[in-house]
């Protein structure tokens, strides 16, 4: 390991920091009608969000491919220079990713971190570039409301009631090119999350399941880097939504940390709670990814935010574990993003 790279028990600090060169974002119709609607690169125009395909699963694959191609185009580098692709989704065996990026023919690491996958992919990509294993890598993830509901809850045709604690799975895909070439956003460190399980079993309250993991990672980042949270202009969690965000702030305050004035949650930002029927906010792999690419990164590039801690969160459940009565553990990964001069 390069001298000085390891920080504390869970973190890495990059002395020769990799840079985040570009982002590609594509979302569904509902997301395009939300507060961030005009900021996305592309959006679906049909209510089913099929993107010209016959099934929701095929549509999710199509979103991933388009997001990757958009990110490569914006990075202004030849596709063949991308050494590795780190990607994942919510579906069984990561089918949205494997089928979506097949045509790109980039060596693939398939990932699963539930809704924290964007953080996992960016962290591994940054580590690869920092270590000299690649000059350029791609990180991508996606989710689709239709495919997620069918796999984890009830087929949409059932028209089942959603409790107020439920979140709306974002239809979207975000892709990022990471490289050693300098840009205005550098990845200066990562804090790899641990699995945190408070024994919750309610799949309709994922914010509550994930909040303890977000708290654990934020506290680990603080300890490992020896910095106070005031050093960050913004601490951005992935998709805790309204319920999970409230729990996170309370847990941190019990540990003597108050981030309320500098906290933003992607699940709260992407939809308008008053006009869009999404209950507790947004969720899904695509939620944090498209919000990072369309809203957070431009803020850093413009210099409005100088240092951001990006903490996407994930509920690590499957249809098997849930049906067998297992609890839903959470995980969160921290990515330190800084404005590069």
UniProtKB/TrEMBL annotation:
MF GO annotations: acyltransferase activity
Protein name: Stage V sporulation protein AD
Natural source organism: Sellimonas catena
Species classification: Bacteria, Bacillati, Bacillota, Clostridia, Lachnospirales
